[in-house]
Amino acid sequence: METLNIVFIGCVETSYQLLNHLLENANDRVKIVGVVTKESSTFHSDFQSLKPLAARFNIPLFNYNQNKTEMNDWLKHIKPDIIYCFGWSHLLNEDTLSIPEKGVIGFHPTKLPENRGRHPIVWTLALGLNETASTFFYMKENADDGEIISQSIIPLENRENARTLYNKIIHTAKDQMIEMTYHLAKDNVTPVIQNDSHANYWRKRCKEDGRIDWRMSTAAIDRLVRALTSPYIGAHVEYQTQEIKVLEAFPVEVSNKTLVNIEPGKVVAVNGSRIQVKCSDGIIELIEHDFQTLPEAGEYLM
């Protein structure tokens, strides 16, 4: 039986964990023949180079530096049967996609065709969805619209946050990837064409999306903070012209009668390092944050 030769592309924590799992669990019909990664990143808060894994397992490595022609020449020299591209923010061009005989496999943590596009974990939490999915699919030039090879539904728990959901997705994807790889090695996959009429695309989030607007509800602020906590950069507020990160918050139950005349953004209490702030419909307590000087009750956060 022939060996399935795989090149693995990625540069985030998900990429690292999936590649490590594949290297430790693949059978003798599967071989990682090359790794494409980066030395550093200015925009991945969960960046993790695959270089240490390539070195430990003695795998040929290509460090990507925005030159797709050089990368494609290297891939053509390696001659992979298939490419796994998990955790990579650059769209692959037609030249790259045509190199491996068995195609290029991508990964997206949503229930495709729903929720294609950017920042899937953040949007899933910020929008308060009840479930998402771990999805592997054949990549095409357009983002996230290729035939689905494997999809596993992931329910969200109450008050799920970015770290717990991130870990849950990786845990699901690991076993899913191994099973998928064995089927690919046997040419035993039945891809499912996505129904584009059910598709939507999430946009790229910007810095302003992470700012807590105290006119928001307690539930919306709570979701925003949970969506942007570690491994991401955190939500933020402004205090005395400084940007302050907030990584954990919790709604506080209080009588509405005590809030009727209080404006959004006003600090109503400070207990140790915990700061209670009025928002549109209640009080939110900031629990984990990077305030160097705590505000006092009666001050305002912007």
From TrEMBL:
InterPro entries: Formyl_trans_C, Formyl_transf_N, Formyl_transf_N_sf, Formyl_transferase-like_C_sf. Coiled coil: none annotated. Residues 207-291 form the Formyl transferase C-terminal domain. Pfam families: Formyl_trans_C (PF02911), Formyl_trans_N (PF00551). Gene3D superfamilies: 3.40.50.12230. Signal peptide: none annotated. Residues 6-179 form the Formyl transferase N-terminal domain. PANTHER family: METHIONYL-TRNA FORMYLTRANSFERASE, METHIONYL-TRNA FORMYLTRANSFERASE, MITOCHONDRIAL. This is Formyltransferase family protein.
